[in-house]
Amino acid sequence: MATDKIKVAVRVRPFNRRELELGTQCVVQMEAQQTILHHLERKQSKTFAFDHCFFSLEPTTEKFASQEIVFDCLGRDILDNAFQGYNACIFAYGQTGSGKSYTMMGGQDNKGIIPRLCDSLFDLIAKQQSLELTYKVEVSYMEIYNEKVHDLLDPKTNKQSLKVREHNVLGPYVDGLSQLAVTSFQDIDNLMAEGNKSRTVAATNMNSESSRSHAVFSVVLTQTLTDTKSGVSGEKVSRMSLVDLAGSERAVKTGAVGDRLKEGSNINKSLTTLGLVISKLADQSSGGKNKDKFVPYRDSVLTWLLKDNLGGNSKTVMVATISPAADNYEETLSTLRYADRAKRIVNHAVVNEDPNARIIRELRQEVEALKEMLKNA
Amino acid sequence: MYEVARIYIVVLQVTLCAMATHSMNKEVLVDLQEKYDKVRKLLDEDSKRDPPSEPYKSKYAASVILTDMKSILVKLVEDSDCLKFKAMLGVVSLNLGLVSVDTEELSTGEEQLMNCVDSLCDDALKPEIILILMTALNQLGILWSERGDPQKSKEYLDRAEKLYEEFTAHLSSSTAAVPFHDLFRTSSPEMPQPDTENMLERLYTLTMYYLAQVHGSLNDHVKSAAYCHTTLKRQLESKDFDPVDWALNSATLSQFFMEKNGFSQARHHLAAASYILDQYESDLNLQEGNDETFEAKRERLRHRSADVARCWAKYGLMLLSNSRERLMSEENENEEEASGTSNSNTEELGDVKHLWFTSLELSCYEDQITDKHILVYEDARKVFVDAQKWLAKAKQYYTLDEHASDCVQIVQDLSQLYKYLAFFEEDEKRQSRMHKRRVDHLESVLKELNPQYYLLVCRQLWYELGETYSDILDIKLQRLQMTDERPTPHALWKVNHLAQQSISNFSKFIESLRDASTKKMPARLNEDVLRPALIAYFRVGRLYSKIVTPDKVVQLQYLGKSLDAYQFLVDYCRNDEGAKKYVSVELAVCEDMVKLLPLKLEKLKHEVQQEGQEWKHVTAMPTDMNATTALQKRSGIFSVVHAEMF
What we know:
The complex is a heterodimer. Chain A has one domain (2-376): Kinesin (3-Layer(aba) Sandwich). Helices cover 32% and strands 24% of the residues of chain A. Chain A has helices spanning 17-22, 67-83, 100-104, 113-128, 185-197, 201-204, 250-254, 274-283, 300-308, 329-343, 357-375; strands spanning 7-12, 28-31, 34-37, 46-49, 52-55, 88-93, 133-145, 148-151, 163-167, 171-175, 180-181, 213-226, 233-244, 315-322. In chain A, helix 2 (67-83) crosses helix 4. By secondary structure, chain B is mostly helical. In chain B, helix 2 (26-44) packs antiparallel against helix 3, helix 6 (130-146) runs parallel beside helix 9 (199-217) and helix 18 packs antiparallel against helix 19 (489-511). Chains A and B meet through strand 9, helix 7, helix 8 and helix 11 of A and helix 6, helix 9, helix 10, helix 11 and helix 13 of B.
């Protein structure tokens, strides 16, 4: 089903050993599609609603969401979409230690979304390919840091910033991004590991001003259907993007924040965020049509990525991972708020129609005329 | 007498203070200075390099030293009540508070900051004290906003604002605010360090900025915008700003003003943006260089200039659109359909109107376009031409092959410009031509787009094309109705052509909603497309009834299609109760149509059967000129056609 909104899922991880030893309290509760965050001292708890709430706290409970369950809910649709020739995008958001890597990658015995996706992908290809139907899988890996795009699979050009383009026929693409052919998940895993080495070091320094670096791993599937008689072939190209979102680290919250706008009513200390504040001000509509004004994009590269994958037949999913522990309350709250906001991002390409009062009047008259005509018939 | 006494007391205080300072061991002061320098190093430099496992290492170390300094200073203040010691103690409390807040101990931080403020408020307007107090008040503002209490935050920020205003009102050359490190300095005065100069101004700019945010949290967006303006103004005056950012911010703010009918303010902010960009461009041109950084600067300038151009175009559009609404609401004043929502075109900025960058000379930019509502075509045309020029400029940057979505949006704006211009044009022929320009632009961009990637945008274009062709059709029909003469075959052909084109575009829109695999219309339409989709059916139903043909068999077909379209709407609403509220008016009309049209169809079928003998070989749809002309030659047919049309 086509949708113009992001599907948002939240997953809570089990306690780790340290937390168990300390006897840390659990502050996260999940009921159906709701995640409730409790505060140990304050009475009021905060409730959030999401498309999926994955309760992975306790493996023995009935509602435990295993890696397989998570993949079934989120990954299968993405794969189906890809084989139909449409794009998909998974965003992963969560602080270090919240289970983001586990959810996305997992380990040998408990594979995460990406390995399962790739395994299924190659399985399906093996089953479906034939003389007429051939498949090609390529990957690319890039980093968006400070609005600059770097190719992580081509270290030579690592310093240069690549340009992001929206071609009217070819769609959105990154100019000059290398795309490497792969034939198995192992290939993909190796490339990701290599690419990770090239990630901007400054980005991982928690105290740096702008420690916001997003990594985007894309799998491009090309399906070629050839009519053996005529030799004519048709191609379907689809892309699955896996975005590892930065911005949830502790230091970002406490130290100099660079150009990130804080959530809620928190004041942004630095004048570098003036632009974002003004944009937000201009954006909030006075109950009219959105298209009447123009608010220049600030966060252009990521927003471009996001906006392209919304609507039409593209699918976008966000997975936010959180810790159940009481000491991580602030970070968990921050993550839940972020995920909550993501729900409201809609591709603004809605159709506005002109008022049709005149047409209605005209048709009403016609109705009257018809009634008259039939009376006299 | 009182004056003399006052001066005497002050002199005494200063002397006592000086004596106290002098008499005590100079070592204590030097020690304090060294400690302060150490604290500064820890907080300003070392803390940036703290390892992730111990992120607050330097801050805690600084805290220890500060606590030590505090006990020393508390004693000094007790002993001598000297202003300078009070100030130094204030700086220490302030820094303790800042460190606590940074290390997430908000309650302790609050306590320390409050201590600082309370101990200093009696001497608030003294040059030694003002910077400390303002910093503390700003910080308390931040603290309370982090606690989710913007009202309380605003109280502290308001205090800081007032403090600055009072201090600067009594400003004289000898009362320059004393920077912190000067308080601790024991040796002879150094050259004033550049970043401590104007610290007061910088603190006040931050106060303005924080107030802008807090008012936003309190949903007073107009006040928020006013403070944003002030922040921008102060950046200009302090010459401390990045020109491209500044221009972009000013242009973005203009979009807020124009939505509140503050067209003068909007225009002014756009003019300021253009002025700053032009200045920056001249500066860049003087520089030489072909390296990557220089290229990047040029690219950024090009990009953001295009954005400012788009803001200008939106200004023109909004001015036209508002003017149109205003004129229409005056017409409709007595009609029952006047909407409840206030169509007020009075500016909604209240008493915060005076938002001008007084240091800039902007008349040559502002003179290019009006800020008043439009009443006549000539004025509308001027606005049109101006906005069109800005769109052309924006399109140079936002090209179709590199920025497809943006390019389409610009074309859509152009289409809207023509639409509004047509409203002010009285001559129908010229109106048609304007709508035709819309069609040309929209079609030319539509054919370049790959629907796989731009489906949502294609939908918008199909829809708008459907509406535009329909608008032209209505103009033509109206003209034909006015004359008593017979419509020419060409005119009829035109009418049919327009109707068909309109139907075709609405149909493409509808088709795009089908499920990709089942090829069926979804049983439940997404909320975003629900109304447009149902209205598309509604429009198609009506359009089919506008097609002219003397051939009753063909008439029957079109009437059938018309009925099908209305039927879809009725059936959909029957299956989805929730949909009714979106199309309640149209639904009522469709329900009538669905009841009455079948009867008309029956009647027509009857006539067809009767005339079956006479019209054996007319099967071609008379939508091309020759067939229509041929039919015209037979007697009596034309009057039938004429009657059917109206």
